[in-house]
User: Fold these one by one.
Assistant:
Number 1:
Amino acid sequence: MPKSIPRSGSEADHLRFVLEHSGIGAWELDTKNGSAWRNRRHDEIFGYPEGLPEWTYEMFVDHVVEADRPAVRERYGRSLEEGEPWSFQCRIRRPDGEERWISVRGTPLRDQEGQVEKFIGHVLDITDLKRDEDRLRTISHELNHRVRNTLTIVQSLATRSFPDDRSVAEGRKAFIERIDALASAHSILTNESWTGAPIPAVVRSALLPFCGDREERCSVEGPEAWLPAKTAVSLTMALHELATNALKHGALSTQEGRIAVRWTCSPHGEEQLCEMTWTETGGPAVREPEGTGFGLTLIRGLMPTEPEGKAEISFLAEGLKVRLTFLAQSGHIAA
């Protein structure tokens, strides 16, 4: 594309240059016979890159999607009758079947009797703008939904972190740690535009505060399956509670203790059914607690809220073993 308008030539040449390179479809409609002059960009917008030999009002209407035609015709009739600009947005369907959004504005020209004899105007392809608007609406809806869910989780964490038999200092520490785990899950999801998160990233992020990069203490192994956003949050919180318990009472409370996190995924309809095992070894002898603390309550309550979700906790002599079942998405390759 030339970088500047040529200085020589007539004003008509300059105007033609601007129209050809501005992306604006220009047109002039004769209201008496319905025929229209237009530039090449106009025809390109309607799906004819090589141009058409002719164009009429009815040909235009035929390209408008059926649901939008009544409004387009009504505005045209009102503009003819009242002499006001013919301005609207609508959807069109190209010859190849692709649907596009256009913005049209035509200025009426009257004859000596005061009747509208022509419209001179432009047409713009605004499909990308409409898609951006739809995306923003979706993001706004999702944001509202996530904020409500997050506040519900925070409320539950606050309530359960301060039981009557725990000091304020202990409750505050537990609450802050759980909020940090929630924030970690949100950070991963934000990096992925909240489309979800890969299981390895979720697992490593949840274990990092407890294991660091010491793979001899915490080993992780499994495929690069992709979790929906809500499942990623649930899994993060469950793993955080397991690691916290391991640090206080389980494998991570001794130098010899080890944790292994393994998962496998198999086809399940249009998704993947994943089974994850948390296995502790080398820690103190394990006994099933008489009461149920918030950590176990959270683990048992989180995963069943997910599609196909399950949480099975086994207090084995050699160490705690937990089996988590959940769905992952198919067709998304984790980075």
Note: The first strand starts at residue 25 and ends at 30.
Number 2:
Amino acid sequence: MPARALSERAARAALAAHFAPGQLAAELAEYTPAEVWDRRVRDDGSRLLSSYRPREELAQAELTCSFVIPSDKEWPTALADLGPACPLGLWVRGREQLPRLTGTAVVVTGNRVPTELAITRAHDFATALAEADHTVTATLAYGVDSTAHQAAAEAGRASLAVLPRGLDGAHPHPHAHASLLRSVLDGGGAAVSLYRPGTAASGATLKASAVVLAALARAVILVEALDHVVAMYAAETAVDLHRPLLAAPATGDVRSSGNARLLDGQLAVNSPDPRLALALPHARVARAGDVADGDLLLAAVGEQGADYFTTPYIAHPEPFDPSCGCGVCCLITEPSEVVVLSQGDPWESCDPWPADDLLLIVSAQRLTDRPLEE
């Protein structure tokens, strides 16, 4: 009698327990997950895979949390932006809440040992986002991330936790953060992980989880980060995936060196204002010629992504005036294809743009509480 076929869920869980998605992308494009598992077992000279029991392991793990896969209605479709690195599945507590939470997710992340200013900013950003019905999304780690979860709870709103270990514990000290994880779940939130119950956190799981954190979100807020810490992986993934990224101003403290690098490279919006964070999830790309009066301009968009302005500003489009003698307009050689989006504010000259150039904007209709002074 032939062996019972392995379900897609069990096969994906087994593959995820042993391989990173990128290691399997080519095979999964040609074979089903169950077929890929069988192929890997046959080719495993160590015999370790043949001793693994996918059905039994899945059943045991699902006593703690659900394993959600791309064919499930709860699957976050935003993860498809990761391409070959898209997870094989997610371990989830609070599964039924996931579609609602990920649809409005905004990451608030940063240092585990932050400055007092960063704690204040994290609380302010998270409170404003939660009260505006965005889902505060963070890692449950000490410092900025746990402050963000606590602020959402204080506002009476659900949050989403992305953990770098199995969901049977919280990183880095399960007993210390168990109450915060319970608070997230009891408050209508959810917790997700790439890793099956029993998996401990490591450098590799922290980095991979930071990537998923950014991919799940509509925007990322980097409150304060020392360069090269885990939070920077989330910020850099936001850049790679063209997610809007806000970095609070660097303070000169080495703990904000990551923010300083991103801002110096014009890779993020520079603002300490929570009201700007409320606009960020609504950002979209538009032609300069289609920008309307009152739209908020955040960045120029090219093949390499967004090049953020030092100061975001409100657009007031005007037809190009060939007689304008400012130091910018006098350089225009094809005025019929140019629109002037600002006349002296925030700069001392006009702001002409080729009509087909692309800009990252927030529509005026979305700015119910203007984030910037005009």
Note: Residues 284-366 form one domain.
